[in-house]
Write a structure and sequence with these properties.
- It is built from 1 helix and 13 strands; from the N terminus they run H-E-E-E-E-E-E-E-E-E-E-E-E-E.
- The protein is mainly beta.
- The chain has a single domain, classed as C2 domain (Immunoglobulin-like), CATH 2.60.40.
- The termini are far apart.
- The structure holds calcium ion (2 copies).
C-alpha cells in the first residue's frame, strides 16, 4: 500500500541525444594528425518507415580512432541529397572507419539498416590515406568513387557516399 507513492519515476531528459548530434568533434589534440578522412553523404532514401509515430528524422555518424562526427538531422520520408561532410583526423596509412545512418528518437536513437548483411546495420570499412583505397566491401573503391549500399531488414535505407582523404 505505501509503496505505490514511489511508482512515479521521473523520466530522464530525452533531448540529450539531439544535442549530441550537433556536437562538434571534441578530442584532445593528438600529435601530428595532419591527415583527415572525409565522408560525403550524397544521398539516402528510407526504404520503409523508420519511425512508427512520425516521419523519420535521420542523421549520419562517422567514427574513426575513438572519435565521432555527426551530421545535422533531416526529417521526412523522401530521398535526401544532403551532401553532408563528416570529417575526422586519421593516421597515416590504414584507418578503421564506421558509418551509421540513425533515426533520432525520443528515447533511444535507432540505427537504420544500410548493410545488406543480416544482423549488421552499419558499415565498417578501412581507408588507406596513402593509397586512397577503401576496402571492406565486396569490391575495392578509390577516393571520390560513389559507394552505394542498402539494408534489407526492418527500418532500412539506401545510402550513397564518397570517401576522400585530405592532407
Ligand atoms: Ca524518429
Ligand atoms: Ca543488415
Amino acid at each position: 500500500m505505501f509503496g505505490v507513492i514511489y511508482a512515479a519515476v521521473r523520466k530522464p531528459l530525452a533531448c540529450v541525444a539531439a544535442v549530441a548530434a550537433f556536437a562538434a568533434v571534441a578530442g584532445a589534440p593528438s600529435g601530428a594528425a595532419a591527415e583527415q578522412v572525409i565522408i560525403t553523404v550524397k544521398k539516402f532514401h528510407a526504404l520503409d518507415k523508420a519511425d512508427e509515430l512520425s516521419a523519420g528524422d535521420f542523421f549520419a555518424r562517422m567514427r574513426l580512432g575513438g572519435k565521432a562526427a555527426f551530421s545535422p538531422v533531416l526529417t521526412g520520408q523522401e530521398e535526401f541529397s544532403p551532401n553532408w561532410k563528416l570529417t575526422l583526423p586519421a593516421k597515416s596509412g590504414k584507418n578503421d572507419v564506421n558509418l551509421s545512418l540513425i533515426d533520432k528518437d525520443v528515447s533511444v536513437d535507432d540505427p537504420i539498416d544500410i548493410n545488406r548483411l543480416p544482423n549488421k546495420r552499419d558499415l565498417d570499412f578501412t581507408v588507406n590515406t596513402k593509397t586512397c583505397r577503401i576496402e571492406g566491401f565486396a569490391e575495392t573503391y578509390k577516393c571520390g568513387q560513389t559507394i552505394t549500399r542498402a539494408g534489407s531488414e526492418t527500418k532500412k535505407a539506401s545510402i550513397s557516399f564518397t570517401v576522400d582523404v585530405a592532407k
